[in-house]
Amino acid sequence: MAKQYETVIGLEVHVELATKTKIFCGCSTAFGGAPNTHTCPVCTGMPGSLPVLNKQVVEYAMGIGLATHCDITRVCKFDRKNYFYPDNPQNYQISQLYQPIARNGYVEIAVGDTKKKVRIHEMHMEEDAGKLVHDEWDDTSLVDFNRSGVPLVEIVSEPDMRSSEEVIAYLEKLRTIIQYLGASDCKLQEGSMRADVNLSVREVGTQEFGTRTEMKNLNSFKAIARAIEGERERQIELIEEGKSVIQETRRWDDNKESSHAMRSKEDAQDYRYFPEPDLVPIVIDDEWIEKIKEKQPEFRDEKLERYKKEFDIPQYDAEILTESKHMADIFEETTAICGKPKKVSNWLMVETMRLLKEHSMEPEDISFSPANLAKLIGLTEDGTINSSVAKEVFEQVFEKNVDPESYVEEHGLKTVNDEGALEEVLKEVIAKNPKAIADYKGGKEKALGALVGQTMKAMKGKANPGMVNEKLREMLN
To answer: N or C terminus: fewer CB in 10 A for the chain?
Structure first.
């Protein structure tokens, strides 16, 4: 009988915090910008420059720690992690090894009907390194220090995950929590959330862990899932052939769907960690923790329950609406204005999602105001415009945040409720379509739809479909 293997996975997740300035200096953290323009003597590691800690970094880290049920370390300190790399300007990184900001938390995930807790070993604050830009043409590497000193939290999980589905569920849950806090936008494609996967395999029923490898360069959930499957297969193959898995760092190439070894895995002692001499310890008291707790938002799980009870919307809709805090805010604000949660939910679930997909946008990129969506719902509800005109107007609201009332007025899009004008058009449509009339009288209900369509076309889509239907039946019967 073939051996059964179990995958054991732990993650190190780096999240760039959404502060306006860097962790130890006043330089901008904005993404992009010409190379080496968001820099100063501190973040380029000039001799004699001194770091000054950004308080907002600590507060964001505490917020994430509390939201993931961690214990906050009352006296936490920074350490120097020494290593040479061209994008590391000081030849050390200021990080936290001995007394990180938070420890011993967990995140609850659900895969299918199964819920489980993924434990968080610890979470620490640190500075990001610069970025090496490789020029294939010149065969040179250039350094951009704009990212150097951007604040990060690194969230280290216990090896509690057993499949790529669990890993993705954990990452999605973490991302949602952090986005709800406003602590980071967590955009994997821009590198503001990065995950390194530590993976080993063992025979089912074995207690001991196998030899693990660490995989880097994963910038999408799909790439992470593919890398996990690829590395699992690679390790099982080695074991089946009687070879050993080597503890090393591997780089995943998503185009080739394979990984290659980068370096053998270092241990902490290789970094010669010692306490950072230029920064004093951070003392966190109960009062500060309470202040952060008070600022915590209503998180997604709580929102989901409330939406189903308060607004009586289905589980599926509530899940889509709460996936992004921005979308949830738009839903709540629009509902507060117009008092029609189901209608608001429909506009967001159907038309908004369609347009986001067409424009390759994320829910975070929605720029129309709740007031304008509420106005559009009002115009359709009171019959000022019909549903096909409403969709046309909504595209303008979505793209340019136009005022729907003014737009309808300026473009003459109001529904025509003039019976006299409608009768004239109907007479013409009836005269031009003898076959459809005969079909309808012969019992073919579908033929009526074609006649309604012709009438709407003749009235440039501005007729009231209900009224057209009613009047048409009256005239034909």
So the answer is: N
Q: What's the domain count of the chain?
A: 3
Structural domain including 386 reads 301-410
Same-domain status, 472 and 342: no
CB 377 within 8 A of CB 384: no
Q: Going by DSSP bridges, is the β-strand pair 92-95/102-111 parallel, antiparallel, or unpaired?
A: unpaired
User: 433 in a domain, yes or no?
Assistant: yes
Look at the pTM and tell me if it is higher than 0.85: no
| pLDDT band of 199, cuts 50, 70, 90 | very high
Examine the domain organization and report whether 124 and 145 are in the same domain.
yes
Residue pLDDT, tens place only, 126-170: 999 998 888 888 888 899 999 999 999 999 999 999 999 999 999
The residues, any chain, with a CB within 8 Å of residue 151's CB and separated by 6 or more, are 16, 17, 19, 22, 23, 29, 54, 57, 60, 125, 126, 127, 128
Least confident of 63-72, 371-380, 413-422: 413-422
- Looking at the domain assignment, is residue 181 inside a domain? yes
Q: Are residues 250 and 376 in the same domain?
A: no
Regarding whether 138 and 70 lie in a shared domain, the answer is: yes
Question: What number of residues does the chain have?
Answer: 477
Is 161 a domain residue? yes
Long-range contacts (CB closer than 8 Å, 24 or more residues apart) made by 314-322: 317/345, 317/349, 320/348, 320/349, 320/353, 321/345, 321/348, 321/349
- Per-residue confidence (pLDDT) for residue 107, from 0 to 100: 95
How many Å is the maximal CA-CA distance in the chain? Answer: 94
Token pair 């805010």 in the structure block, residue: 329
Considering the chain, what is the average pLDDT of its residues?
A: 87
Q: What is the CATH number of the domain that holds 424?
A: 1.10.10.410
Q: Region 206-235: what's the mean pLDDT?
A: 87
Average pLDDT over residues 14-24: 95
Cα separations (Å) of 31 from 88, 309, 350? 19, 40, 32
Only one residue has tokens 């579908």, namely: 446
pLDDT in tens, 245-275: 888 888 888 777 777 887 665 555 588 899 9
Residue that terminates a domain, selected from 256, 288, 320: 288
- Report pLDDT for 137: 84
Among 258, 288, 318, residue at a domain's last position: 288
How do the residues of the chain divide into helix, strand and coil, expressed in percent and rounded to 5?
45, 20, 35
Same domain, 321 and 256: no
201 shares its domain with 168 = yes
Q: Same domain, yes or no, for 269 and 351?
A: no
Q: Partners of 124 in the beta sheet? A: 154
Whether 249 and 315 share a structural domain: no
CB atoms within 10 A of CB 223: 19
